[in-house]
Design goal:
single chain, globular, binds zinc ion, Muramoyl-pentapeptide Carboxypeptidase, domain 2, alpha+beta
């Protein structure tokens, strides 16, 4: 069953306000997580199904503010946070030219203001039943593949997504094409996300980023539209069929 969807405002979509999200049931998360209520209701249904398959589905990262995403971005740009290449090997940020560094950051982290985590529709998921005590998830691809601690979860999600039994969830980052790397842990709630993506206001984002203290802004500014096309705006075709018309209603895509 789907809850009625309240569409986030422009400021909420940019991560400037968190008024469209609410705290998720602590049993369904690790740490404090907030999500759009419609996505939260759907995750509870998914959790119930997962538990019948022996999984303990937990959200580890949901809504993220612009300020938080800016901190992540600037940390990677300054070489203070771990920066990984496609194969999850560490990169030396200080050895990269600005344009290359921008692309490297975007491979795993969104531009502040353009993160799907601002929307409250998107989150990262793990299986707490598979985590040995004292081990925290690294959100690495290998964890979700055969032999990894979340391999069962990865398989279960894959199957559900293929059969279309996922309550409106889908994986936006499949690692296809040249943009963002595949993120098997990242799920998106299409009934909310499709509206959010269609409503992204590029002019407003440009204005916001220009005055935000974003490291590498000069390199981002010249190719902002292109970068958004490649890394943030996945387009209607990446959504489950049933939710593609939500894009048309906003007149874009
Ligand atoms: Zn994510």
């Amino acid at each position: 069953m789907m809850s009625p969807v309240v569409i986030p405002s422009i400021d909420e979509l940019l991560g400037l306000r968190g008024t469209h999200v609410a705290r998720l049931d602590p049993e369904a998360s690790i740490g404090e997580v907030s999500l759009h209520p419609a996505a939260a209701a759907a995750i509870m249904s998914l959790r119930a199904e997962g538990s019948r398959a022996g999984l303990d589905l937990r959200v580890v990262s949901g809504y993220r503010s612009f300020a938080r995403q800016l901190q992540i971005w600037n940390g990677k740009a300054r070489g203070e946070r771990t920066l990984l290449d496609d194969a999850e090997n560490e990169l030396d940020a200080t050895a990269l030219a600005p344009d290359a560094l921008v692309l490297a950051i975007l491979r795993w982290s969104a531009l502040p203001g353009a993160s799907r985590h601002h929307w409250g529709s998107d989150f990262d998921v793990v299986d707490a039943a598979a985590m040995p005590p004292g081990v925290s998830p690294g959100l690495r691809v290998a964890e979700y593949e055969e032999g990894g601690m979340f391999a069962r979860l990865g398989c279960w999600l894959e199957l559900g997504l293929r059969e279309g039994t996922m309550h409106g969830f889908f994986r936006p980052y499949q690692g296809l094409g040249a943009g963002v790397a595949g993120e098997p842990w990242h799920l998106s709630y299409a009934p909310v996300a499709a509206y959010c993506e269609a409503a992204l206001d590029v002019a407003r984002l440009r204005e916001l980023l220009a005055g935000s203290g974003l490291v590498l802004w000069d390199a981002v500014e010249t190719s902002l539209e292109l970068l958004l096309q490649r890394f943030s705006l996945l387009g209607a075709d990446s959504y489950p069929l049933a939710f593609r018309p939500l894009f048309d209603r906003r007149g874009s895509a």
